[in-house]
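User: Could you write out the 3D structure of this protein bound to adenosine-5'-diphosphate? I've included everything you need below.
Assistant: Certainly. Input first, then the structure.
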Amino acid sequence: MRIVLVGPPGAGKGTQAAYLARNLSIPHISTGDLFRANISQGTDLGKQARAYMDAGRLVPDEVTIGMARDRMAQPDAAGGFLLDGFPRNVGQAEALDEMLRSESLKLDAVLDLEVPEDEVVKRIAGRRICRNDSAHVFHVTYNPPKAEGVCDACGGELYQRDDDTEETVRTRLEVYHTQTEPIIDYYRAQGLVVTISALGKVTDVTERAMEALEKSDEG
Ligand code: ADP
Ligand code: AMP
């Protein structure tokens, strides 16, 4: 399956993607994770992206689209993928459509995670991520690790993202409303959008998501 996950920052896209990708046997492709990996490796791409990320703004399409295209061209993504954080504006959505069309492929579903704004602010404020593997995501109160600051899955060090500050979160939410939300209408016109509530336990949300994807597959 080729799936796009959308939802505001902190909705739980990365958390759900880790489970969904495993259940569906497709790679989880997060452009945010790819940028963070480039930053920690000190690449030119990371240097280009960093200031935008720290400010909570979108990295320019010229940089982002090429990076996403390269990742989707990897052999493990030939049979499908779960995109998390891409596309993030209509231009990126059009570029993705064009990429897929050129290979006679198409998206199967766009899973829209709905969460009230006060909840995403709380989720982002307490988010902690593992240095070894960004799929290991915790929350200081909602999903605390057994030992403070240590990843349950691999023992790695947990850290708070540089852009998870109150000020940057406000900008990221505004960017989401003005630039990313329009892609939901764009995909709705293609009949691809399934919306679920991302409130409640992580496992309940995963169950909701799997059900919604199965239904959209039948439809
Ligand atoms: P996104 O990828 O959409 O930015 P994350 O998956 O990183 O969001 O989740 C943001 C924070 O919210 C993390 O700290 C995560 O542990 C927490 N979280 C995710 N899903 C839930 C949930 N259903 N209930 C409570 N907290 C959650
Ligand atoms: P995320 O990990 O998805 O929350 O993304 C973190 C940051 O990376 C965003 O605030 C943007 O600065 C940047 N980013 C991630 N994906 C994209 C994208 N598709 N387009 C532009 N910028 C992106």
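Residues 2-218 form a domain with the Rossmann fold fold (CATH 3.40.50.300).
User: Perfect, thank you.
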